[in-house]
Specification:
By secondary structure, the protein is mostly helical. The chain is built from 12 helices and no strands. The protein has 2 domains: 58 residues, Helix Hairpins; 99 residues, 434 Repressor (Amino-terminal Domain), CATH 1.10.260. 24% of the residues are buried.
């Protein structure tokens, strides 16, 4: 349940679900199910405390918290982010070089060697090479490890992080290449999901 000291927007996943970092799968599940009942539009008085939109946002955050904390690998990555010891999915401030990059549709088609544009690991790699960007330099520029950039380009599903982090990495990668972050992220995630990527 949301406490009076910290709003639900400020709470981390553990605080939101009211569980400790060592909580078992069963404890996490019980906490999640309990909160699902509390934060429902069917709960008497809930709309006095929150707008329907806020209830939906709380439900979405609880769902994300549940998905991350019930998966050991995702939980470890989340803990590292909380400790500041792992790359955060939030895009860093644009690098001066990135600001100057902006590809038009014709340049993108030229780089991909096709009229039909769709975003995959291969196409992102082609754009990077078209811009003559060394992957080591790009990794330093956008503060994402070379290992993760290589995994994204290769669509190496086993080496990719959980979706909550991968979305941020894709958006940062796309911005650095002068591409539409939203479209790149959505198309890439759809593509690898069809190949078996879940991590949820």
């Amino acid at each position: 349940m949301v406490t009076e000291l910290k709003s639900w927007r400020e709470q981390n996943y553990y605080e939101l679900l009211e569980v400790g970092s060592q909580a078992s799968d069963e404890e996490i599940r019980i906490a999640y199910e309990k909160l699902k009942t509390i934060y429902s539009l069917l709960t008497p008085g809930i709309t006095i405390l929150f707008t329907p939109e806020e209830v939906k946002q709380i439900q979405d955050k609880m769902e994300e918290a549940y998905r991350v904390l019930r998966d050991p690998r995702s939980q470890r990555e989340y803990d590292l982010v909380m400790q500041g010891a792992w790359e955060k999915p939030i895009a860093p401030p644009p690098h001066p070089l990135a600001i100057r990059r902006a590809l038009n549709t014709q340049q993108i088609r030229e780089a991909l060697g096709a009229d039909e544009v769709s975003w995959s690991g291969e196409s992102l790699g082609k754009i990077r090479r078209f811009l003559k960007l060394n992957i080591d330099e790009l990794a330093l520029e956008i503060k994402i490890s070379k290992h993760h950039l290589e995994a994204i380009e290769a669509e190496a599903i086993a080496a990719l992080p959980a979706p909550v982090y991968l979305k941020g990495f894709l958006r940062s990668f796309a911005k650095a290449l002068g591409l539409d972050p939203q479209r790149v992220s959505e198309e890439y995630l759809t593509r690898i999901s069809e190949k078996g990527y879940t991590r949820e």
